[in-house]
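Hey L., structure's done. Input below.
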Amino acid sequence: MLLKSISDLNKKIKNCTKCPRLSQYIREVAKNKVRRFSDQNYYGLPLSGFGDINAKLLIVGLAPAAHGGNRTGRMFTGDSSGDWLTKIMHKNDFASIPTSLTLDDGLVLHNAYITAAVRCAPPQN
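Output:
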């Protein structure tokens, strides 16, 4: 399949099931939530990157967190590593706000793009 745009790539990532163990795990975590997030809907799908696709700064994480990105639908969002990263990026004018809590929190990256080597939270991180 020839990818013509970043949105084509993101759709392909979202629908990926090439790693059955990881695919099953993220869906299981989304279904059997931890108590502190039991009232929230989990995204529970592979995560694509986000930010400015023409960025000069590329941040590559290892994988989404089971109750961070796997819950919120955005890498480095809703967990302590996201809190730290977004705060530092904001201090250096790469992020519009100093926190990364939810997919619709208004975070915009400036001249930065965030992605990960693995698209699904791994079991036993």
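The helical segments are 6-14, 20-31, 69-72, 80-91. The domain at 7-116 is CATH 3.40.470.10 (Uracil-DNA Glycosylase, subunit E).

-- N.
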